[in-house]
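In this section we walk through a basic example: taking a raw amino acid sequence and producing a predicted 3D structure, encoded as discrete structure tokens. The instruction is simple. Fold the sequence below.
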Amino acid sequence: MSLAKVVIADDEAWIRSLLRNMVDWQRLGLRLAGEAENGNAALVECEKKAPDILITDVKMPGMDGLDLISRVSVLLPNLVPIVISGYDDFGYAQRAIREQVIDYVLKPINKIEIETVLQKAVRKIRERREMDERFHNESGKVKKLKEALACRNAETGMLLPADVDDRIARARTYLLEHYDENPTLSQIADLSCMNRTYFSEMFKLKMGIGFGRFMHDLKMEKARLLLEGSALNIREISELLGFSDAGYFSRVFRTHYSRSPEEYRNALRPEAPISQYSS
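The resulting token sequence is shown next.
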């Protein structure tokens, strides 16, 4: 496995130096790719370096560590976040859990503790990479996701309610991770080992929204979050979302939000809510 990249964000230079020199990065299968002294700088650094792991302090100027994790996770859905803090505060721990932080490490930082947490992060990354590699070695998407979904009784169509719930949930997860590939209803139904019509009905029943509308709203929500949380230009955002034409993306965005992407970015409000589509 290639070395996993790490970015450190902490406003205290001595903490960054301590981590830089305390951890045996290469032995753990890691490479320190960058550092930042505040949340805004860390966001830019993560956009440039695309780290696998983000180690961040909670309290930093400009943007706190948990808001940073929330924004970076939009760009890097597979990010493994680790929070360090001198604030032994249960409220922070609760927010950290909501942001899917792998661990919450209190200062003063202990070498054994931080390396143990990093080893856990490396295992998670390795497992994810091994799964992706297995999928890519298969002949096509149908065979890949059939394994992941553990298709049972596909030929007879005899599915228990729990099976349907599980397949719709897995299909949703797949869409959250692969929306930029523009998967069709038929493809996802095949990948879920379900009849196209039945899948469409069940998806709408379980999600409360049709497949086409789900994909549209998902892309528009991702576009909104990228406009708010990144310095990417409109063309780059449209490409990340799977649009082949930035002009078409702008028209779709205007229809959805009643303003162009440029107008939306100029009128940003930091307190804008994050929706159910954020992964």
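Looking at the output, two observations stand out. The longest strand covers residues 30-36. Residues 271-279 have pLDDT under 50 and may be disordered. In the next section we compare this with other chains.
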